Amino acid sequence: MEKHDESLRLMNLAVLEAKKTMNENIGGPFGALITDFNGRVISISSNSVLKDHDPTAHAEMNAIRKASEALGTHDLSGCTLYTTAYPCPMCLGAIIWANIKKVVYGCRAEDADKIGFRDDFIYKFIEDGKTDIEVLNIEEKHRNECLALFKEYSKKEKQLY
Fold first, then answer.
1. Which of 37, 57, 114, 137 is most buried, judged by most C-beta within 10 A?
2. Helices (H), 24-158
């Protein structure tokens, strides 16, 4: 099977998973799957925000959690993530933390924006530190108390991740 055909097959699995749970009112039109370095499917998931009452239960987050559990590691180096839409900022962060170096996505961020999803103003907030609407008030306080915790952790020479 050619690479394009295999990529399409994998994306279609993500689309089918999203369609199923979307029609069950579990979450939005978002599906994701993760393959290992051999192209074998490790996890497949969809958005379950509505069912789980969890704003972090995006398809990519759920797929990362499942893949990490299946492989017994937080390090998904060598894996590829297929997702029905360009990952939101939260999912991008998780993808980077998981050491996934390749993402294949279907719809663009502006496609999600057109159907009512609000990723765009989060991207603007990250880029500019502000948007035209109040999104978040971030205030630094009590740094010295928290630095003491960081110093204690550093002295213990724990595994970094």
1. 57
2. 49-52, 59-71, 89-97, 109-114, 119-128, 143-155
Rounded Cα distance between 135 and 37, Å, is 39
Which residues are part of the catalytic machinery?
A: 60
Mean pLDDT, the chain, as a whole number? Answer: 91
Residue 22 has pLDDT above 90, yes or no: yes
Beta bridge partners of 107: 85
Residue whose pair of structure tokens reads 């159907």 in the numeric block: 115
Contacts 24+ apart (CB under 8 A), 9-14: 10/35, 10/41, 10/82, 10/104, 11/82, 11/84, 11/104, 11/106, 13/41, 13/44, 13/82, 14/44, 14/46, 14/59, 14/82, 14/83, 14/84, 14/106
CA-to-CA distance for 104 and 111, rounded, in angstroms? 16
- Residue 98 — pLDDT band, cuts 50, 70, 90? very high
Task: Look up the pTM and report it.
Answer: 0.86
Between strands 31-35 and 102-107, the pairing is: unpaired
Query: 31-35 and 41-46: which strand pairing?
Result: antiparallel
